[in-house]
Amino acid sequence: MVPEPYLVADLEQDILLAKAGLETGYAALDRLLSIPQGAITILAGRPGHGKTTLQLNLLARMLKKYPEMAFAFFSYEESRRALALKLIMLEAGETLDQDHNFKEERQTRPAIEEAISLYESWTSSGRLLLSDQRLSAEDLSVTIGHLSGRGPLGAVFVDYIQKVPLQGASSGQRYQDIQRVSGLLLDTAVRLDLPVILGAQLGRDKDSKDKVRLDNLRESGDIEQDANLVLGLLNKTRQKEEDDGVRDSSRSVELDIRVLKNRAGQAETTAGLMLDRPILRILDKATDHAVEAFR
Fold it and tell me: How does pLDDT run across 257-281, given as a tens digit for each residue?
């Protein structure tokens, strides 16, 4: 098909219809960026540093900030049960052991009951979809399209891209398959004008103390080239634990969110957040002065 001329009238119409990027709900981040529409955002981190936790906290904040929108979270690592319990726990601000009697916890702990009620309102209304099906990239793209057709879809989270399989995996290197997965999801984001937020695992770099770098994604098929926004998560406490082999007993630890790439703004900037480790709640150092501030 021959492309039609893109007239000034077309440009004006597209500008009028363009949707603003999503706010994250964290003032420290929102001063630096927004989550772009019709594009891929990558949240990258080392294993165990909190990339899934960050995605779940962003999901919870967006659900509350955009009550007219639905959000979907596709996990290739954890069960729906584990994800739901984590969301309830970070919202309640209290620890919740999945091995304990769930009904008893609801009856004896008001904060847990309140968080469960909020979670129920999100899911029963269709605003929150949690999936632990290991969909292929092709099926994931189709599923996202179906969800978008149901009503306003705010964003889709995928945790994480290196785990997403292909129907026709190549016989070559895995990074080639990851490139194809990234390309499919980029096409989906652009076609649906939808933010697709991908968790990504940073590569191991034993020779460098600074492991949160854009080139540490490049062994994963140059996926950063498909992204409009790349955020790198640095958990200094966790990094020190790995380097020293000694567990740090601190409840709250600092998280640095580095803007590694930003097509719509400035890169090489950093936002400081705090992680309350027992309850998996991430706080904004600038505005959340206490654990209760997130509720």
Answer: 999 999 988 888 999 999 998 899 9
Q: In Å, what is the CA distance from 61 to each residue of 23, 87, 188?
A: 9, 11, 24
Q: What is the dihedral of CA 157, 199, 80, 284, to 10 degrees?
A: -80
Q: What is the pLDDT of residue 141?
A: 97
Return the closest-CA partner of residue 96 out of 88, 104, 252.
88
Q: Could you give the count of Cα atoms lying within 13 Å of 87 in the half-sphere of its Cβ?
A: 27
Angle at 146 between CA 127 and CA 183, to 5 degrees: 105
- Judge contact between 161 and 178, C-beta under 8 A: yes
Q: Give every strand in the sheet of 252-262, ordered side by side.
A: 128-131, 70-75, 153-159, 195-201, 39-45, 227-235, 252-262, 269-276, 281-284
Q: What tens digit of pLDDT does each residue of 183-198 get? A: 999 999 999 999 999 9
Residue 179 inside a domain? The answer is yes
Establish if 114 belongs to a structural domain: yes
CATH code assigned at 173: 3.40.50.300
Using the 8-state DSSP alphabet, how is residue 211 labeled?
A: -
Domain enclosing residue 164, as ranges: 34-232
DSSP code at position 121 = H
Overall domain count for the chain = 1
Give the least confident one: 59-63, 78-82, 94-98, 204-208. Answer: 204-208
Integer Cα distance of 224 and 59 in angstroms: 22
Separation of alpha carbons 195 and 52, rounded Å:
17
